[in-house]
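Minutes, project check-in

Agenda point 3 was the complex the collaborators sent over. CS summarized: two entities, 623 residues total, and the question is how they sit relative to each other. Sequences were read into the notes so everyone works from the same version.
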Amino acid sequence: MIETGIPKLDKFLGGGIPRGKSLVYYSQPGVEGEIFGLQTVYGTLKTGGTCVFVVSSTIPDIVKGQFDEFGWDISSFKDKLFFVDSYNPLIGAPSNEKYVVSNPDRIEDFHKTIMDIIKELPPSTIVFGSLSTIMDLCGEKETIEAVRTWNKMAMLYNHTIVYNFTAWPYSDETLNLIKGDLFNSVISIGGIAERVIFGQYFGIMKSDWAEVSRKSMLFRVLRPGGIKIFIPKILVTGPFDAGKSTFVHALSTRAISVDRLGTTVAMDHGHVEYKGFSADIFGTPGQERFDPIIKLLSGESMGVFLIVDSTNPSDFIRAKHMLDITKSYGLPYVVVANKQDLPGALTPEEIREQFHLPEDIPIVRAVAKDKIGVYEAFEVLLDRVTGGI
Amino acid sequence: MSDYSIGIKELDDAIGGIKKGSNIMLIGPPMSGKESILKLIAYHGAVKNENAIITVTTRESATNILEWYKENKLNLPLSKIAIVDCVTKTLGGAALENENIKIASSPVDLTGIGVKISQFFEDFFMKKNMRKIQLHINSLSTILMYSNIQTVFRFLHVFTGRIKAAGALGIYVIESGMHDEQAIATLKQLFDGMIEIRIENDKNYLRVTGLSSKPTPWFEYEIDGHNIKIIRGN
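CS then shared the predicted structure for the full assembly.
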């Protein structure tokens, strides 16, 4: 078993990646997926393993510099870390590495070098810095065929083989193979996007040696430090007496309110763990004089619940205004139609109409005091935040 | 007034502003002043329209770009400027990142370039609350020297899409006469319009197509330091 050294990931994988297995870090363009391969190299070295890093999109010296940026000292692992240079030959420059792919745009040349490594070295972790670059140079079909063979041979020789892959718009056939049968495990790395990408997460899409439950973790990349997990904030807002505190308490595994005479004057705070996803929940007070707090909290949030009292359309103008405050930060949001158990409660369709909400904004029915619709709303928001992995 | 404009009055009058989410190709022969034009579009965008400008440079270093503005006595509002430098590292230069500059490892590293662009987008959009962003890529021709047309197409497919989604403006520089017609035609599908430059009898002309109902006339221009002077329409 080799450890990736990425927090939580080893745990999700049941300890790490077993020898003989293949794994792909499948990244959406624009997110820092390549760090995963780099950290896996360091994870292997730190636990005494041998490692090969295949460099395709820049010179090996720059990659060595990247390890330094993360504070990972590789100088003491000279005999344990080998680089395959498939970049310098591409730009016609000489290479100082032991392993060089002489024509990086010919898959046969790649194949020869990789097969040599597989046969020569003791069981190692072989990490490809960018499978997509190889694919771009050598062709999609040709590369996939080679990868199939490398995975098989790695299994026979007891190597662990790991690829960074950026999911540019290749053919569906190629993408489906990569997400599907080609590897023993697929780790998906994505961005939280609402007009721009403003957060990154990873999750296990597939793993044939560990039981996979839908788990995703938000991460940041620190220099030095590498991948660090963090707990996102989710904001609960809405007009006075719409049931925000009740909602925060219903959703949270633990929660506190700072209140006076039963109405929240500062804020509610809770924490939720649900389906492997955890978040801190902040409820804002409904009165207008607290609007600056909403602004303050919105700046750091990942998503927003807008709670409305379904029986009180007169408050919708106020609700709309609160939504505008948070919307100006470009956050994904879900409208929770609370108090659906009371007579005169409007249906989500009626609320959409009165609110002039676009069709694609989800409205979830809820009775927060009975915990009805609360987790459904959370799931809907998660899907919006992560784009549904 | 429109959020985005070129900064050359005659052209802007002729096209009447550029729509949010537009992707434009800036195409012209070598030595026709494309780089100066792009720098001046950036300057105009940052100063007059108060837009954030992200420049991806594969030809000259970020330091050189900033120097150019200094030499021309143009005071760039640095809080609105971001540069993804794809040259410095491979040339072995000291490559220090700061608030304005991010260093990509090479022009082949489209994944890395994409990450840096996305990070600047996030910085401006979420952290600095600046919603009007211009992405300038100078140049696609260099990127095409290292990667094949399909690869570049896929990269641009993603990023022209992000420009649309963010309501930003994308400008992509390409050398005419350096790539085959089919490559240009393939890339054109991704763009809403073009700023075209041609040289004839030692005179420079430019026009804009695709951004208004019909192409603008060709304007003869001269670049004088940091001024683009339109001599006459024709």
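Noted in discussion: Chain A touches chain B through 37 residues (CB under 8 Å).
Follow-up: revisit at the next meeting once the mutant set is ready.
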